[in-house]
Amino acid sequence: MPYYVQRGTVPHKRHTQFRKPDGSLYHEQLFGTKGFSGVSSLIYHLYPPTQVSEFKFMWDIAPGYIEDDSLSHRHLKTAGFEAHGDPISGRAVLMGNEDVTLGFCKPIEPMDYFYKNADGDDLLFVQSGNGHIETMFGTLEFESGDYIVIPRGTIYRIVAEIDAVQFVVIEAPCAIEPPSRYRNEYGQLLEHSPYCERDIRVPNSLVTHDQSGRYEIRIKARGKLNSFIYEHHPLDVVGWDGFVYPFAFNIRDFEPITGSVHQPPPVHQTFEGHNFVVCSFVPRMLDYHPDAVVVPYNHSNLESDEVLFYCNDKFGSRKGIEVGSITLHPSGLPHGPQPGAVEASIGKTRTEELAVMVDTFRPLRLTNAALEIEDDSYPFSWK
Predict the structure, then answer these.
(1) pLDDT tens, residue order, the chain (383 aa)
(2) Residue 228 φ then ψ, to 5°
(3) Is residue 341 within a helix (H) or strand (E), and if so which, with residue range?
(4) Is residue 19 domain-resident?
(5) Same domain as 173, residue 313
(6) d(CA 185, CA 234)
(7) In the sheet that 40-45 helps form, which strands lie side by side, from edge to edge?
(8) Residue 354 to residue 232: CA distance in whole angstroms
């Protein structure tokens, strides 16, 4: 989120001597994007962030897309997703392309290590459960309905109610941020934006750890997982300031934009990345023209694939959807309301639907993990 934040203690002037009580220097780190020209934060450590004692390759974590690229509408039921692993190892990519991957996580184990994604930003949507994330920037609390944006390179650990938490995982090798059309030339969210800075939550406390021992950071880079061992606690930051940090935004704080007739999905846009967008469908008043048809009209995504994650089962345009359903409507095929939905919608004044949508502008490919939870009858649900 591109506005200035400071936590902890920082020196008055950048790149100047900043000393500990014993007279030795703190260790300054520039944490930046796009070399030295993008947004950045300056972080001050007790120990050099370069001071590693061991490292080893763990395993390849490339998605492994299937060869079957047949053109078809898809319905995945995450209720059938097998819980496994921790909040990192339990993630399974369901679909993706060169720009973004979409996955799901239902962990059953706590994390006993820290994690860093060096390949891209993580956007987590919390379907259920609550907890907090320990990061080098401080602690970030989360709850059901939260979007959590974790910038590339952030060291973090998720601490949660393991039996209750479920995440949708969106990963991209680019910044995931509020749409540029919502911001002015200074980066401030505009009056017509469906959310503002007051809705954004940043790390609320910076806890500086000064412990020695054996601490593991698992780093994802180039599609592979590597283990690095440090002899000091990795969250040893005494202060930081800048424009790069993790943040959270709850979907229920999204202010819906409505009209007298049906509004297209861009009014629901919440985040953008390179060649994809993320949208939030939230409870709202429906169209108020006396002759309005309030469910979506048939439409063809001629240049994009559309993915919907259903947080509840309150969708008037679609039958057979359950909590945790994921639908994929690929480019090349029209889709729209199922039989009877148009007539049934007329006269309704409100919807309670809650969903996250991702539109991609390059085709998505599926993985075997997606096929294991697929509803094969979905392509024929318009008959």
Answers:
(1) 678 999 999 999 999 999 999 999 999 999 998 888 889 999 999 999 999 999 999 999 989 899 877 899 999 999 999 999 999 999 999 999 999 999 999 999 999 999 999 999 999 999 999 999 999 999 999 999 999 999 999 999 999 988 889 999 999 999 999 999 999 999 999 999 999 999 999 998 899 999 999 999 999 999 999 999 999 999 999 999 999 999 999 999 999 999 999 898 899 999 999 999 999 999 999 999 999 998 888 888 788 999 999 999 888 777 788 999 999 999 989 999 888 888 888 989 999 999 999 999 999 999 999 999 999 999 999 98
(2) -120, 135
(3) helix 341-345
(4) no
(5) no
(6) 36
(7) 5-8, 237-242, 40-45, 27-32
(8) 43
Domain limits for position 371: 255-380
What DSSP string describes 245-269?
A: --EEEEGGG------SSPPPGGGGE
Burial 80-116 (b: 16+ CB within 10 A, else e): ebeeebbbbbbbbbbbbbebbbbbbbbbeeebebbbb
Residues 301, 352, single domain; the answer is yes
Beta-carbon contacts of 314 under 8 Å, excluding residues fewer than 6 positions away, are 351, 352, 353, 354
Does 21 reside within a domain? no
